[in-house]
Amino acid sequence: MPPAQAGSGTGSSMGPGMSSGLAPGRPLDTSTPFGSSGGRRLKVPVGFGYSVYLEGRQFGMLVVSVGLYIFAAVVASEWIYLLSAAFLVALILGFVLPFFELAGLTASYSLPQEVAPLETATIKVNIKRQLKLGPISWVVPTRALRMTVNMLKRSTDGLPSDVTIAPDPVYIDKLESSEWYSFPTPSLKRGIYYLDSIELTTCFPFGIVWWSRSVKLNKDAGDADASITVYPNVLSISGNFLYRLTGIVSPMGHATSTSVITHQSSSFRSVREFRSGDSLRHIHWASTARQGKMLVREFDSETLPVFDILLNLRANYRSPEQFELTVTLINSLVHLGHSLGHMPRLILNPSTESADLQALMADLPHVPPGLALTAEILARVEPITKVAANRKTIEEEDPTDFETWSHVNDRPLLTVLPTSEKIMKYSPGKGDVVCQPVEVVEVSPNWQDESEPLPGMENQNSEKGVNFKSARGASTKKSERNEIGPTGGMVVARVESEGDFDGL
Asked: Model confidence over 460-471: pLDDT tens digits?
């Protein structure tokens, strides 16, 4: 079997099942098996990717040839002997010639570099004829070929799955030397797809015996480029939820609760209770008199806050559609932050260096951090389902006290948490569909820590006795939380379907 090589076509771009040159290909009607006579067929692998199809007509011809030979011996007729030999020679040539026809072919391919989800990709395959039998090869031309391309989608364990995605086969009427053929694939979802094999089938010239040859092109055969990466979609987000995010706390003056890096404007937002460090100039005296407690004004930020994003692969996703909605939302949030002038950091739980993601990230290309690397990571992620079955969701656990995070000197951290709800929504062109909403939640940047000490209290434990029993319990709780990921926080937005992204 000749090795397949990655190549690029020199001819013009072709439509489905068409080629350039003198040998146009055309799609086949796949409603019935190609070349089947309606009876039973037996596929016999003979090695090196070759297979032969045995049908009833071949045994019938052999029986007729033997019967004529016996009859010729009884009647002593040389003409019947000649007729018997003709049946036998036709059977032998019909068995041998298609094999040599396929043996003289080599295949190369060209794959698209980037594919958006739910779009079709065009696989271009080059078939080249080699004259291995010298002048004898011109006696039997290469004609009546059936060519199919098989693709495999990578499963959650990082290996190609058994599900084959096969574009429509192409019929090649005649092959002179070298031709390019196009295979439009079905609509592809997010993920990694491997070009598994190219299968060529023919029974030319007598149509007696079908031979099939499978040219392996997958990654296991050494062709690292025989794959298509389908990146998650990017939808437009207006950023209306950004005003709910907390500002970045300055590392100086921890006693000043309002000392944020983002500048304040004169745009009045609301009032809140007075905290230590608030300026007396911001006290709202009218509200203070009505409520009987000290209230201060809050102002919108002069600049939009920056944020990082956490994708929790161990969250309790109810369906593949809910996970795909989460990945699309994460990718859209990354592009939103990039459009606002900063690049959000994408954090995974578990991390990309963990054993759970080694199989998925083994082929991650070496590209600098940015939108390209984020797209490559999100194209490969899958939910990690080996966490304990009693993991909690956002509506099953009390949210963490958000006010205790104000001393954290880090960017706001957003994550997308799945809900257990199911709602019915109308989708144009699809009618009523069942949606499983997700929520955009701001969580503590130090969610992995069991407890963050308040400023000035870091050394208290060294001066007091330590309760080792409580410490062991806290360590176990911290380990469980690190494995499951954050399950609560301040909800800043809710998304029921991709149609809600515009108002987010």
From this structure: 444 444 444 444
